[in-house]
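Structure ticket #2291
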Amino acid sequence: MTTIRVSLGTAIALGLSDARADEWPTTAYLMVGERCVRDCAFCAQARTSTARADALSRVTWPRFDEAAVLEALARAVDAGRVRRACFQTTVNPGIAAEVARLARAVRAVAPVPVSASIWPASPDDIGALLVAGVSRVGLALDAASPAGYRAIKGRDPAAAWAFLADAVRCYPGHITTHLIVGLGETEREMVMAIQRAHALGVTVGLFAFTPVRGTALAHQPPPALAHYRRMQVARHLIAQGHQAFAFDDAGRLVDWGLSAAELATQLGDGAAFQTSGCADCNRPYYNERPGGDTYNYARPLTPAQVKAALGDLGAS
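Resolution: structure written out below.
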């Protein structure tokens, strides 16, 4: 029997699990690959991680029969509950070909856009994924600062940025990336990384660092909510074409380059504080625990939530 890992929230949304949830994903998240050959210090799937094998971030990914998943996905798409499919992958030989196979299988049963978070061996692999029906390929940078990238991912940040730029040149409009707030970078370093990606034409999704038991960074705390809010606002403004920010000597963002009235207009709908990335990707509870701080809102904010999020910006 061929099986595939499905995030628990996705399993609930697809009717494959009778567990309860108060937020459902609008994207079906599917994981491909076993333990990664790379060793990112924050990742449950890292080569030397002792985290449980079915974990990614703080989410569990139970296995289900592939045919049952595809059938359930088709029903959920037809009912309007799911509007995108996204493959989360580890780095392993043959992973791009397996994602291409699964993308074709998804597109055969459900007319939804397909994304893949993957670090392929070459840009040619990206082309093969696009031919197979993947419309957005996420090349996750994760760490914003060069020093943090080397320490946490154990690789050359210049090579990663060069690969990202090459991918955009080859396949413009199809490349995204993720950055994780809270890996020791300054706010200036994070804003500069977002600006650099935006200048390349890359869509940026933000995550909050989430400590996971069994990883090298298990005892590092998540970012302060105020710090994360400032980075959400910076990402949102940069995506709207705004570039003028000011920082103090410690690299903390202290001026948006906008008047209070202009900032209020830009942020009044609360969209800056929702999950960022591909359309219809809401990732409920990927960074959060129910009842805890909400880093990325999975649906449009209420007026009270917008007010609270705006209040967070000035906190220390």
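Closing remark: The radius of gyration is 19 Å.
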